[in-house]
Amino acid sequence: MRPRPGWMVGLAGFVPAFAAAVAVVLGDLAGAPGWHLVADLVGGVVACAGVWLCRRWPVAAGLVVIAVSVPAASASVAAGIAALLAALYRRPRVAIMMGAAGVVATLVRFAVRPPGLAPYPVWALVGVLFGAAVTAWGMLARTRRELLLSLAERARRAEAEQRLRAEEARRAERLGIAREMHDVLAHRLSLLAVHAGALEFNPDATAGEVAETAGVIRFSARLALEELRAVISVLRDPGSSSDAGAPMDQGMDLGALVEESRRAGMRVELRDHGVRLSEAPDVVGRAAYRIVQEGLTNARKHAPGQPVTVVVGGAGEGELVVEVRNPLPGGPAALTGDGRGAEPVGSGALGESGARPGPAGSGATADSGVGPGSAEAGPAGTGLAGLSGSEAETRPAGLSGSGGGTGLVGLAERATLAGGRLECGETADGEFRLAARLPWPR
């Protein structure tokens, strides 16, 4: 509800005030002397001009109009309109004061020049009731107008908040779609690239080896298409969540996922300590599965030829710990030219008891989130540990490949949505470590 322009309000008050002034001069004062008529008419014109100004200066102009109404009978209606405008545009205390001033002016005018037809007390009562009615009417109209303005403003804010919520929901949906598409396709396409590269760099392969590799490529491409189709079907279904995940996660079977990477030539060691992700809550199991999948994909892209250790276990009551480790290329734990490397990966506490991930002495544990090449989780952290949501786009320094770090950001978002946290970074032993702690009430 928009307030009316000042000129409209002034015109609405001026017209009836001027009409009443003319009526009083031509009617009640018809038999008065000429100078009296002229003086009263001048007073009425002044009062009408004051009414026009009451929209901008309700108190000052209103008091002038009320004062003029005492000697000029033609200004009496203008005085009532001035009191009404003051009640419309000023606080109740000011409105009551203006109403009282109008009543006093009316009583004085009736005392000086009784209108006749009735005793003075009757006219005094009429003046008091009229002033009270005008003031109450103005205050009521002001309250109603403020209520309507408040409701309109509240509706505007609610609409703006609704738009913001809708935009935030669309943004979250886009992030979920991007996260799911990345998780589904990056793993499959990297496997395809590995097998296709094997064909390219092994021209002396036998027909049987070529056929076997081509079969693996065909199988991986078919799985990629099926997973992509599953994601698209989720996106097309309005009743489904874009983050619900594709139903082609092989039952969240880590053994099948690891075996797939082994067929691509990777050396992967799995220590699951009897944990079945299918028994975990869906959001926790899926997050753990995607973390292992992304860890294998990153190791395949950034550290080709290096062994990978996948550890899944519990860390106390109600918690699931997932860890993927691999030596950094050129680091102290990387394989040398004769195929020998540093101490085998997985000698940490979780590798033995399933209680705590991280190589012994590395300092890059999920408890502390601190280690060489990483930083304490938090807004001030500039390393890789303690990723939370989309706080930072994380890319391990010194790693090759064409990744943009969005996979790790997506994993951090998944861990946060599951109620856990993700850590990644270089350890003191020259390994890259990706670990997550996820809640698993049992």
Automatic annotation (TrEMBL):
Alphabetically ordered keywords of this record: ATP-binding, Kinase, Membrane, Nucleotide-binding, Phosphoprotein, Transferase, Transmembrane, Transmembrane helix, Two-component regulatory system
Keyword Isomerase: no
Domain Signal transduction histidine kinase subgroup 3 dimerisation and phosphoacceptor: 173-238
Top-level enzyme category: transferase
GO molecular function (one): protein dimerization activity
InterPro entries, sorted: HATPase_C_sf, Sensor_HK_TwoCompSys, Sig_transdc_His_kin_sub3_dim/P
Name of this chain's protein: histidine kinase
